[in-house]
Amino acid sequence: MRNLLGLQPLTLGILALGLAACGTQAQRPPSIVLVVADTLRADRLGVYGHEGQLTPFIDSLASEALVYENARSVSSWTAPSMASMFTSLYPSQHGVVTGFSLSMANAANKGGAMINRIPATVESLPEALRAAGYRTFGVADNPNIVSQLGFERGFDRFHASNYEGAEAVNAAALQWKSEIQSPEPFFLYLHYMDPHQPYHPRRPWFAFDEREIEGAPADEDGTPMGFVSEAGLRAVHIRRVIEGAQDAQEIEARLAYGVDLAIAAYESEIRYLDEHVRQIFEQLALDSETVVVFVSDHGEELGEHGSIGHPFKLYDELLSVPLILRLPPKFNRAGRINGLTSIMDIHPTLLEIAGISADSALAGKSLLGPMDGSEERELLAMRTHERAIDTHKLEALLSGGSKLIISSTSETVEFYDLSSDATEQHNLAAAHAAKAEQFKARLSAMQASLTTFEREFIDLSLDENFDQMMRDLGYLGDGE
Predict the structure, then answer these.
(1) This prediction's pTM
(2) For the residues 111-135, what does the mean pLDDT come to?
(3) How many CA atoms lie within 13 A of 453 on its CB side?
(4) Is 60 exposed, middle or buried (0-12, 13-18, 19+ CB in 10 A)?
(5) What distance in Å separates the CA atoms of residue 32 and residue 26, rounded to the nearest whole number?
(6) Rounded distance, CA 366 to CA 353, Å?
(7) 411, part of any domain
């Protein structure tokens, strides 16, 4: 059943938003642009308080938009997060927990290539919009957003690539410029991989003192310590920073240098991204009548808990994301919203804007409703690592300014008061054992109450392009 969640298209052009400014007269529904900036922390945008002028164009969009100050992802990496954004379901419901790259790595090691995908019984956001009459276009530069995982379903035009950069994303979208600019409403999804690792120092925005440390290795071409060559671009490689260190003190000094180096390159990638988002808006002539959603799939750790990247953790630097919704002027909606929101809320919001009713079984809520914090909300987050011999799970519950993180493998429990410890440095699980137990019980109850769908798998090794996919991801050499 395709409509298992009860998504029913209404008459195209009827905006059932209940907003006086919109009226009820039949009209052409607005076109929609969904911009996903992979791995972008909320606290690196000016509109979220950053003072580095990294996002001037995105900040200008936000000045006339709804800005959700407490938006969270459902996971700390792409495949489950984007499947949740497209379906408004938690990862434990839609079952997409193992991404394309990891499955290919497992295939290289074990010879099998089973991968789970969005179930065919679940109608995704692009499918619902296309059924309602929208023309649908998608460009994704993350290797996990591929047809094999079901992400292409519902798109009239879909282009997938593997970290070719923002310029390539824009070029792919511009192939369809004439179609996008035709009179009918469209949905355009742009997924930029910048600023995901490897971090490229994007000039002129990369501002860092590339000071030399005695004994540090350097490439024959003079590449400074901490950099490697990646597809013709220099990229930060922190492991190279500590090569040749003689003692613990020198390692510590070099690691501090490496974190600073990574942050500088990461932030230059954000400025590079912002510039290319500005360019595509100008090139496609996206005006104020176009609905715009700007969001990230997850955040990035920059040393807060001992790592750089988005490892197997669920701390807030990995879950807190920017979420900006710009509506056409007739909606008369702009400002800052401090209630707890989720990337899953994008799906029902855009359905409502398009005049499509959304089933109450969706885990997300429309962002057009009250989000002022007056209604207490609880959100889950999860990360799963499935292997042939075992499965590792992390789960989190965020509610009322407190947060629980539990590991099914190590049976560790972490409990934080985010109002006084926003960076989650002080585990209160022992000091507040009773409350932590309440959160554990609530997490279990919430998971048990969720509607789950039968997981869907495909065997990638049966694909005639399997060997080429493996080579493209670096798992097979030319002679294999």
Answers:
(1) 0.87
(2) 89
(3) 25
(4) middle
(5) 18
(6) 10
(7) yes
